[in-house]
Amino acid sequence: MRDRFKKEVNKLAQDYTASIPFDKRLYKQDIAGSIAHAKMLAKQGIISDKEAELITMALTSIREEIEGGEFAFRADLEDIHMNIEARLIEKVGDAGRKLHTARSRNDQVALDMRLFAKEAISQTIEKLVGLQRALLDVAEANKDEVMPGYTHLQRAQPVLFAHHMLAYFEMLQRDVSRFRDCLGRTDVLPLGSGALAGVPYPIDRDFLAKELGFSRISANSMDAVSDRDFVIEYQAAASITMMHLSRLAEELVLWSSAEFGFIELDDAYATGSSIMPQKKNPDVAELARGKTGRVYGNLLALLTVMKALPLSYNRDMQEDKEGFFDTVDTLLSTLEVFTGMIATLKVKGEKTRRAAEEGYILATDLADYLVGKGVPFREAHNIVGGLVQYAVENGKTFKDLSLSEYKNFSSLFEEDVYSVTVASSIGARDVPGGTAPGQVAQQLARARKIVQG
Questions:
Q1: Predicted TM-score (pTM) of this structure
Q2: How many domains does the chain have?
Q3: What residues pair up with 146 in beta bridges, in sequence order?
Q4: Using one digit for the tens of pLDDT, what is the confidence trace for 91-124?
Q5: Tens digit of pLDDT for each residue in 41-92?
Q6: Residue tagged active-site, from 273, 333, 419, 424
Q7: Which of 444, 423, 428 is nearest to 146 (CA)?
């Protein structure tokens, strides 16, 4: 690789440019691509069937060496492609030297990254669905539990706990959809594009696509070797997913605190304090919040790398891998640990119900009560606002107020005002997407069908 140069590469420059410390992770994809390429070259008569057989057997052996920890990776060979090729030549000589016919490292690495991304996307979708199932299980197990719904982190209106959990199910379903879309745009074969202009050999790209499991081939060789949209898109979808998980993490942290006391996390997903024996810290949830930032950072880093690159391939694009690998690892591990954490948490129904019944959470329902008696909503809103102020100043709840006190604010209040309860409030939201028990039951059934495929 140094034939053009009069000097050996500087050792610091060699270490600086080498990608083998991290791109060795692509060994399976690189070997799979090379085996398919060898078969195609033989099919097209560019190399012999015997040479293709030797190459395939040697590459299979190299994969076993790597997986057995027997392969010696060399930084002076720069990357996974050259490390494998050098070992291949050691094993089969000139046949190995022919493997790089009709390809470049540019389309080779693009292929490896797409193969890796396709696998990562499939794993991500699988783990997203696993977390959705855990959410459904805990929702169904607690389908009758009531809790306060919040806006501005202030108690707003009562809802079913299952309804709250289903909100996260919907977020994750959008995430699944985004990753499926990403998979469609990742499922494009770049091999055969060469360095940037295509190759001057009678190759069969459709054969390669079929061998490697791609649905279609790239339409433009320059775009194919310089495109990292699919990596950016994965990272963008991952960032949104981590944002959703971070929101859930925040609620788990709040709910598991003594101030809320709505849930108890399983001991397996909490840690203690080095100094305070009584502590049970929701560290898993907290770390997920923190790791969300690094996933965001990986996305921004790659967007910055790509933003000013001229066509086609530039070495800057070597920086696509470490952040991408880190994002994949972070997201998959977060989804997996969240699935276990959600599956094992316990809902403290008495505490959530008590919180839903405290304070003035039924204020909107009282306004709706007046609307039902012909009062315009804005007027009803003002009446109940005054009622709340009166109750607060007198240290009373709505149920503590006498009918005469109610009538001081509107003569339309009657004895049936005491039938306005948490249960009636929830039951009244009997519209598609609402928190009424029948609606939530339908939502649960729909969600279960979704995860069952």
A1: 0.94
A2: 3
A3: 160
A4: 999 999 999 999 999 999 999 999 999 999 999 9
A5: 999 999 999 999 999 999 999 999 999 999 999 999 999 999 999 999 999 9
A6: 273
A7: 423
Quote the distance between the C-alpha of residue 251 and its chain's center.
18
Residue 406 lies in a domain: yes
Same domain, 394 and 339: no
Closest CA to 102 of 37, 53, 167, 152: 37
Which of the following is catalytic: 152, 274, 402, 411? 152
Claim to verify: residue 196 and residue 289 sit in the same structural domain: yes
User: What CATH number does the domain containing 126 carry?
Assistant: 1.20.200.10
- Give phi and psi for 310, each to the nearest 5: -75, 160
Confidence of residue 2 (pLDDT cuts 50, 70, 90): low
- Find tokens 């019944």 and name the residue: 357
The pLDDT score that the predictor gives to residue 159 is 98
**Whether 167 and 306 share a structural domain:** yes
Q: For 94-155, give the DSSP string.
A: HHHHTTTTT--HHHHHHHHHHHHHHHHHHHHHHHHHHHHHHHHHHHHHTTT-EEEEEETTEE
Instruction: Compute the distance between CA of residue 88 and CA of residue 39 in angstroms, rounded to an integer.
Output: 16
* Number of Cβ atoms within 10 Å of the Cβ of 167: 14
Whether residue 152 lies in the annotated active site: yes
